[in-house]
């Protein structure tokens, strides 16, 4: 693969990557000098006139961003920052698929080597995320703390919001989950209903979330005993804030698994496999209110954008 550094001054070198087909344009900015304007993000992400992606990721020194100060105070090892933008040019706090692909990109750039089991601490607007590479090549990310913003009441009631999808007769109850970025999870009756959804139109959420939300539509598929213990399975489609329907959303799979686990009640498994249109991700509820996300990261090709 051609390195992204061999672009001329009039070009922007990039690498195209994806995690379970949630795709990204990755740009290396080791000096922290690139002005990633919303217009440039939209042009790069455009699937007809640009490279095409759900999001754009800039790798920059944490010390070059105002948000980097908190990150370096949390962990001085988090010298590289994942500056994440949605395809519409908006800034997002976190991207679970993106942070795995970011780790693979950092390895490509020789800024990290995870082959020996080392951990890469990545700065994000939602704090430091720690990534390791498993022997099978999947990347496991400690996604840090998560919450149900509606608190114990919402969990007891199973909902703190209502979601209306285009074509439905009535809104349905949903649970808000905070992964550093906002999510709203709604359960459907079965896979046929999930497959039939029209997600070309944004779902409406009430009360309207102040900073918008990603909406996960899920079908719990049950639990089973495996050699690694009891695990649960969920199918999911997602409508991402700032993008539209995507084939996967890492933070969204965490939100989906955590909501379904809460709905299942005490004794529900900590480990969940979440099937999305782009593949399967593993989510593990960790002690201390943290969550781990594990899945593939693929660097597909490099190019230069004029
Ligand atoms: N696809 C990402 C989430 C990207 C950000 C999201 N659209 C937002 O605005 O919060 C993931 O894998 O987590």
UniProtKB/TrEMBL annotation:
Residues carrying the site annotation Could be important to modulate the pK values of the two catalytic cysteine residues: 183, 240
Transmembrane regions: none
SUPFAM superfamilies with a match to the protein in the record: Diaminopimelate epimerase-like
The keyword DNA-binding belongs to this UniProt entry's keyword annotation: no
InterPro entries per the UniProt record, alphabetical: DAP_epimerase_AS, DAP_epimerase_DapF
Coiled-coil portions: none
Entry EC number(s): 5.1.1.7
Class in the EC hierarchy, top level: isomerase
UniProt KW keywords: Amino-acid biosynthesis, Cytoplasm, Isomerase, Lysine biosynthesis
Subcellular location: Cytoplasm
Binding annotation for substrate: 22, 86, 96-97, 181, 214, 240-241, 250-251
Pathway: Amino-acid biosynthesis; L-lysine biosynthesis via DAP pathway; DL-2,6-diaminopimelate from LL-2,6-diaminopimelate: step 1/1
Keyword Cytoplasm carried by entry: yes
Function: Catalyzes the stereoinversion of LL-2,6-diaminopimelate (L,L-DAP) to meso-diaminopimelate (meso-DAP), a precursor of L-lysine and an essential component of the bacterial peptidoglycan.
Subunit structure and binding partners: Homodimer.
Family: Belongs to the diaminopimelate epimerase family.
Identification of the protein by name: Diaminopimelate epimerase
Species of provenance: Luteimicrobium album
């Amino acid at each position: 693969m051609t390195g992204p550094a061999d672009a001329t001054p009039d070009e922007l070198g990039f690498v195209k990557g994806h995690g379970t087909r949630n795709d990204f344009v990755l740009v290396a900015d080791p000096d922290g000098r690139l002005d990633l304007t919303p217009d440039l993000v939209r042009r790069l992400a455009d699937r007809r006139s640009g490279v095409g992606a759900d999001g754009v990721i800039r790798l920059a020194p944490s010390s070059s961003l105002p948000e980097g100060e908190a990150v370096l105070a949390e962990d001085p090892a988090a010298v590289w920052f994942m500056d994440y933008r949605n395809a519409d040019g908006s800034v997002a706090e976190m991207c679970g698929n993106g942070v795995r692909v970011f780790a693979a990109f950092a390895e490509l750039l020789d800024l990290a080597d995870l082959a020996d089991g080392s951990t890469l601490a990545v700065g994000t607007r939602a704090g430091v995320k720690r990534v390791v590479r498993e022997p099978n090549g999947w990347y496991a990310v400690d996604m840090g703390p998560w919450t149900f913003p509606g608190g114990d009441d919402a969990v007891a009631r199973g909902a703190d919001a209502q979601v209306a999808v285009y074509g439905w007769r009535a809104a349905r109850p949903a649970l808000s989950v905070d992964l550093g970025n906002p999510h709203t999870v709604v359960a459907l009756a079965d896979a046929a209903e999930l497959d039939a959804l029209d997600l070309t139109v944004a779902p409406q959420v009430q009360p309207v979330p102040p900073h918008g939300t990603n909406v996960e539509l899920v079908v719990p598929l049950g639990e089973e005993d495996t050699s690694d213990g009891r695990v649960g399975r969920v199918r999911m489609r997602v409508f991402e804030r700032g993008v539209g329907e995507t084939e996967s959303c890492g933070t969204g799979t965490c939100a989906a698994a955590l909501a379904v686990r809460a709905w299942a009640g005490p004794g529900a498994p900590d480990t969940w496999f979440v099937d999305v249109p782009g593949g399967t991700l593993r989510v593990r509820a960790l002690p201390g209110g943290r969550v781990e996300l594990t899945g593939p990261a693929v660097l597909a090709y490099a190019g230069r954008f004029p």
